[in-house]
Sequence to fold (631 residues):
Amino acid sequence: MTVRLPSLTSLPQTENHQSAVTKSPVVAPKRATGGFALLDSLLRHEVEYIFGYPGGAILPIYDDLYKVEATGAIKHILVRHEQGAAHAADGYARATGKVGVCFGTSGPGATNLVTGIATAYMDSIPMIVVTGQVPRAAIGTDAFQETDIYGITLPVVKHSYVVRDPADMARIVAEAFHIASTGRPGPVLIDIPKDVALEECDYVPVEPGTVKLRGYRPTVKGNPRQINGAIQLIRESRRPLLYVGGGAIASGAHEEIKALAELFNIPVTTTLMGIGAFDEHHPLALGMLGMHGTAYANFAVTDCDLLICVGARFDDRVTGKLDEFASHAKVIHIDIDPAEVGKNRVPEVPIVGDVRNVLTDLLRRCQESGIKNIPHKNQEWLNLINRWRQDYPLEVPHHADSISPQEVIVEISRQAPHAFYTTDVGQHQMWAAQFLKNGPRRWISSAGLGTMGFGVPAAMGAKVAFPDEEVICISGDASFQMCLQELGTLAQYGINVKTVIMNNGWQGMVRQWQQAFYGERYSCSNMEVGMPDIEFLTKAYGIKGMVIRSRDQLNDAIAEMLAHNGPVVVDVRVTKDENCYPMVAPGKNNAQMIGLPKQLPKASAEPVACSHCGTTNPPTHNFCSECGNKL
Fold:
């Protein structure tokens, strides 16, 4: 039997309300304010945490929230900036798979949420964003703290509402949760004028899962004919590759991906959003592909004859030069969003549907057809990939006079192999993606928008969701300063997040690009002048701060950080000019990487003619694109 969370009215005003909660039926009042209807609806949708910041237009809702918090039904986390609220709700959603919720007031409160909304939208994260608005009569008059947040956010939300009647509140909240969490997930905005929150109405609760929206019916089951076509291509392929994105995480398809990979002996590479969808300790795992992906993943996507795209969107940071990305491969594209299928690459077999559902059907059809694992299937292909692994491994530099960032990440991973990891954006993000080995939903990073300042508040959201799990934020000195005020939130609530800063005194990725592509003209990328003493800054918030300056401190300092019962910020002084390699330069294909430990095979050779069929192949290819013969 499923126990439903109580409604607002069923919670007695006692300290120990849990026993009473489970016995009390959901009873709704006949009359209620819009603010009450909002909070009661959130309770009915099993919301436990709200991240937010109050202000004038949303004060009526916070007044109702005060009464609800007193019952223990919902916990509000007061952030220090609304951007932090959005990122924390985002981190909560990524870690749990549930819908994250954040509040902000009108005007600057609402606009401060926009970066976090766009971050969630680009990465398809389910969120409900509630904003206060000036009273209905004042809308359009340029009233104090009035902004058209509905219009401002239209390009970066899945859907949005302005509540004009408190009687509509319960329906709108139910619709918003349904839209945010079904199909391709995404953020939904609910803008609530102040007088709507105060006004009473005849209140009729709307239970979760009962709303139906005309015209909104996401396709969740794949077309059987297309699935059969995909099976046929997989069986015929000699060099298949699974290319797995964030859609696999959203649908919880990691077991199905593993089963498919092992059934046909298919190597697996993931996008930045797809990290964790496949066990990276598995012999078929190739790690991340793309601009800073592993060399062997990028070689594999260049030479494969079948690319099975699972919940990914052929993003430019993955594909490099698009017309040369897997240019001689047939493509199977599985995605729940029909707008993504064929947008950047036209597949031979398009399958619209939920990734997990599609793969479940595909595996069932394989079983019904008697298809079994062939132990040495694709062995020549796997042998070649393993040779690339040996020739072009990810390297961990050891400098005599400084600590490399890679060393730090490897040591953290060794001591906390099962932690939730969040990151900010830049070189440290790419090194973390390369060297951490993450399970499903334990990798939390801003991929599509690339938002600096994301890491600490996202870690707050993950830690609130899983208080007994280790949560570690990998940051850079520039990114950390974007949202460092959230140290106050960590301190207020004792949120036990560990933050490790790769401090090189630069906007590291900007410096790397300026070195490689802008003639070493380092315009506005050095951060040393004005850099705060991070240890002292952290202590000013009442949080433990640490500094690591030498390699011999690293092991013990990380152990001390993890053992401390409370938030910690560790400032690691790393090599200042370390670059993140390999790297696919802009406008190049994935096989044209710079920064590899040795020269690429046939890097300066002429195109190669196949001795079997005579087809001319690019110098980076190891197999003939026409007949598959080894070159």
Observations:
- Residues 8-202 form a domain with the Rossmann fold fold (CATH 3.40.50.970).
- Residues 256 and 359 are 6 Å apart (CA to CA).
- Residues 82-96 form the longest helix (15 residues).
- The two ends are 62 Å apart (CA to CA).
